Model the fold of this input.
Amino acid sequence: MRKTFLSITAVILLFTSCSNDTNEVNIIEEPATYSFQRNGATTVSFSGQTTRIQMGNDLVASLLDPTETASSLKAKYAHNEGENNFDNASLNASSKNIKTKVAASADYFSANTTTALTIRNEFEGWIDTQVNDVFPFWSANASRGNAGQLQEAGGGAIRYVDAKGLELNQLIMKGLIGALMLDQMLNNYLSPAVLDAGSNRTNNDANILVDGKNYTTMEHYWDEAFGYLYGNESDAANPTYFVDEFLNKYVGRLNNDVDFEDMPEEIYDAFKLGRAAIVAKDYETRDAQAEIIKEKISEIMGIRAVYYLQQAKLFLPNDKGTAFHDLSEGIGFIYSLQFTRMPYSNNPYFTRAEVQTFIDTLLAGDGFWDITNTTLDEMSVEIASRFNFTINQAKS
Done:
């Protein structure tokens, strides 16, 4: 059974400060929402995360437009400032892009640039496959060994797959949840190596702000982690979820799952208490909240991977369109497992090699056309065993 964490409901929390060598007792006034001000103005800022989420939304939508080219899709992924890659003028004017933040965390990739480059290029390779191997057969019926379209039973949605039955758009979409959102959140902005880099802690203690801004560097880094989950909300202090195609959507889905319905609130509470702890200069509390976030966000990748593997079993015999769609989503979440973070550890729940073994197994031979329930069950057991949930919990 998954672990149960004590919900933080007290408005005022007393603790012994570890921000200095005294036994000073500080008070954290836990805010009702993720809202922080200094001199009457907000100190919260994560515009870069909002921009990348919106670029990602545009990219994944365009993957289902067969008039797009490999060049135009890659330009959305690796946008250069001023290029007209999007319908949104503010995105075109931005200096931000997706590619440079993929597999770019301080903890996992600063000393592993070869793997980082490989991962960034994998997304471009999948774009090439979509354009070269799927777009030309957009109107054809898919079959074993042949790309094309599969309609879900009962006149449902049409899915566009490669010769192995894989929807490249789903792999790219779910893969970015891990390679961009998780990696930047868990392994970069919530890392003490980033939060405390250089003079960040000293400056935060002294309330020294970033030049021209209303926040300290440490406050801003924590906000940037927050932004990869809530950055596309119209009011991030009161999230409604389902506002993008990435992490926000899948955290929101847990609200309607009796086995995991507390997780969205636990994640949000950890973010706001950790931010309040930064304001109060209590870094032990900050880091404890970061560990909660790492564990719970990582667990969602495992839950969704198992969910889709198990869902596919229900449809494999008679509804390949639905089954292959579930498997395509599942393989994307499996890919994202390499970017997870075990709490109080520098390691993911699954290594890149382990993830690649899963993917190779799913795509062996004719890929999804050859998948068996036994394979899906064995994989589900292995994934669930690393986390604190059961297959029955995940598949419902």
